[in-house]
Amino acid sequence: MTAATYDKPLPPPNEESRPFWEAMKEHRLVLQKCGACGKVRHYPRPVCDACFSMDTEWMEASGKGQVHSWTISHHAFHPGFKGDLPLVLVIVDLDEGVRMCAQARDLDPEGLRIGLPVRVDFEDATDDLTLPVIRPA
Amino acid sequence: MWSLRDKYAIAGVGYTEYSSKSGVTVLDLATRACGNALADAGLGADQVDGVISYTFNDSVPAMAVATGLGLPGARYAVDYQAGGNAANLVIQAAAAAIEAGLAENVLCYRAMNGRSGFRLGGGRELTARGITQHTAPHGWISYPQAMAMWCRRHMIRHGTTSAQLGAVAVTCRDNAALNERAMMRQPITLADHRNARMIVEPFRLLDICLESDGACAVLVTGAERARDLRQRPVYILGAAYGGGPNQGDDLFDAIRWPDHDHNYSRYIADDLWRGAGVGPRDVDVAEIYDCFTYSVIVQLEGFGFCPPGEGGGFVQDGRIARDGELPINTHGGLLSEAYIHGLNHVVEAVEQLRGQAGPRQIDGAEIALTTAGAMTCGSALVLRN
């Protein structure tokens, strides 16, 4: 699908997030890591909140994590998602010590629990956009 | 910590009709609410020299309202880029500005066509700009979805139940039934809550606040001046604003918050009570920010009305009803009166402390708590008559 026919919100990558989205297109999950103290952070941002260094590196993430919380959305809130309801939305504690959110795939809503092992997978949404999704570990 | 105990007072409150379609501009709403607050106080516009508001790109700036009111000498104007978290901050800021000599009489307002115009809960701007590029593309777009994640965590950690959420919804509606300006006045039962449409688990329709067109305004002045005006002064006993670490890039962003089983209230409670010189047990009526039913439960814990995790039990058995141990949201709250982003809670607290709340009046109310915010940052006031 091209961006022209895609009816969901498209992320406009900026100077901070572009490496994240570029890696997504290659089906890789990358995270920011402070070049000075090594603290990992997400979402992408310009400064390390531990040591205030702006020296930023990107690291390959394992994609492994655990469910932190979740909700099942029966309302779309945006017309583009009406055909996808219900949405299972998950916040994941990644093994790298940061959280991210994404839609779940193949996760039984009844079986969801805090701490459930999961992994990050990738779905091509358009020719230029790949989104992370969460699958059972 | 707040060091201005009893030095400043709310001398006037004003509001417009609350509706789902005002049919007028936001500037009209804002100007009308401010004018009503001045009339309530018995103060002329020529005496007002400060205006403070908060906006989510859905309102009009303070200078426009100053112009609309014909203020001859506005010398203090602030527009906070904020949501309900700032509903009490604006009043704290008004008192601080007067203390600093920047103004003498300050109007605070919140105005929005929140249903017929920009719908804050309806999907923000339906874009994925800025920090929302990491949520919106997944369909995670609106506050009910975000808060549901917090509530889920609280339910699992503490055993909080949907019936306990329902107790908050029923209480607010019971109060709204006695409030002529409330948008939703038809009483509901726990069964109505249980059978309401599921929107975003665990929230049903009745767990989520209204969307409203309307405006509220509050006039803050020195205690001495307030005593010369038309209404009984309502003194600002305590005020606090803040939150914990990692408050996020905007109100929606709480991805780094330490744990979603508690919110800002835990972090500002000490400041609030120490500044006010009273504690939770002294509160006669509490207007708790209720964008969601769950938000009330977690703030009752945070502000010390019960231990962490016990807010669900606290709201049951009539404890938060008008004749209960801690009457809450006597106007109906955001859930049933209107969503004026928390400033309507201040209006209600003032009316309660003046003894002007009619059929919903809490007898002998002397000390009121108002809170504002539900997530990583917020504000609160302790008021007395």
Task: Please give the structural blueprint.
The complex is a heterodimer of chains A (137) and B (385).
Chain A: H1 18-25, E1 30-34, E2 40-41, E3 56-60, E4 64-73, E5 87-94, E6 99-104, E7 117-126, E8 129-136
Parallel strand pairs in A: 6-8
Antiparallel strand pairs in A: 1-2, 1-3, 4-5, 4-7, 5-6, 7-8
Chain B: E1 8-15, H1 26-41, E2 50-55, H2 62-69, E3 76-81, H3 89-99, E4 105-113, H4 143-158, H5 162-176, H6 190-195, E5 198-200, E6 203-204, E7 213-222, H7 223-227, E8 234-243, H8 265-276, E9 285-287, H9 293-302, H10 311-314, H11 333-336, H12 343-354, E10 367-372, E11 377-384
Question: What are the defining features of this structure?
Answer:
heterodimer, A: 137 residues, mainly beta, OB fold (Dihydrolipoamide Acetyltransferase, E2P), 2 domains, 3-stranded antiparallel sheet, globular, B: 385 residues, alpha/beta, Peroxisomal Thiolase, Chain A, domain 1, 9-stranded mixed sheet
Outline:
The complex is a heterodimer of chains A (137) and B (385). With 137 residues, chain A is mainly beta.
General description of the model:
The complex is a heterodimer of chains A (137) and B (385). Chain A is mainly β. Chain A folds into 2 domains: 50 residues, no CATH class; 76 residues, Beta Barrel (OB fold (Dihydrolipoamide Acetyltransferase, E2P)). Chain A contains 1 helix and 8 strands, in the order αββββββββ. A 5-stranded mixed beta barrel of chain A has the order 4-5-6-8-7. Chain A has a 3-stranded antiparallel β-sheet with strand order 2-1-3, covered by helices on one side. The two termini of chain A are 28 Å apart. The mean pLDDT of chain A is 95. Chain B has a 9-stranded mixed β-sheet with strand order 3-2-4-7-1-8-11-10-9, sandwiched between helices. In chain B, strands 5-6 form a two-stranded antiparallel ribbon. Chain B is built from 12 helices and 11 strands.
